Amino acid sequence: MMFRYPDNTKMVRELTAIAREELEHFELVNQWLERRNIPLAPLSPPPYGAGLKAQVRPQEPERFLDSLLVAGLIEARSHERLGLLATHCPEPELAKFYRGLMASEARHFGTYWILADTYFPRQIVMQRLDELAIAESELLSTLHP
Ligand SMILES: [Fe+2]
Fold first, then answer.
1. Could you tell me which of 42, 58, 64, 75 has the fewest CB atoms within 10 Å of its CB?
2. Distance 122 CA to ligand 1 centre (A)
3. Is 14 inside any structural domain?
4. Does 135 map to a domain?
5. For residue 81, how far is its CA from the centre of ligand 1 (angstroms)?
């Protein structure tokens, strides 16, 4: 998105910060794995992301709005997943780590939401977010019946 919409300065700045933070998290996760002698393993992309991206409408400006909202939904779901991990993790230190990541993912969702609200009228954002959330819910029930 940073390269597709380089004129949207606010978005480029915000997404640069998210990209930096995600890479820092990758580094931290990798350190946890190294401490436990767990090698990084190939991970095929989950059909969840591809299914959501298929909801992005091809024409502009709808493509831009949908891309922001789909990215936001992915962050929101990561926030939920990390919250569950933190709640059920038996190791306090690891649970604390998950909680930290959870808070970041919530912030990231907020950033995408604010960006959508910056570039599009709120009513259009709300309506499209509702539609995408329904599509996401249907997608998740097919993937995890
Ligand atoms: Fe994130």
1. 42
2. 23
3. yes
4. yes
5. 12
C-alpha 75 to ligand 1 mean position (Å): 5
**Domain harbouring 64, CATH code:** 1.20.1260.10
Determine the distance separating the centroid of ligand 1 and the alpha carbon of 49, expressed in angstroms. 13
For 115, counting Cβ atoms within 10 Å of its Cβ (0-12 exposed, 13-18 middle, 19+ buried), the class is: buried
- What does pTM read for this prediction? 0.92
**pLDDT band (50, 70, 90) for residue 143:** confident
Residues 36-53 pLDDT 10s: 999 999 988 889 999 999
Residue 46 belongs to some domain of the structure = no
* Cα-based distances in Å from 108 to 42, 45, 103, 127: 25, 20, 9, 20
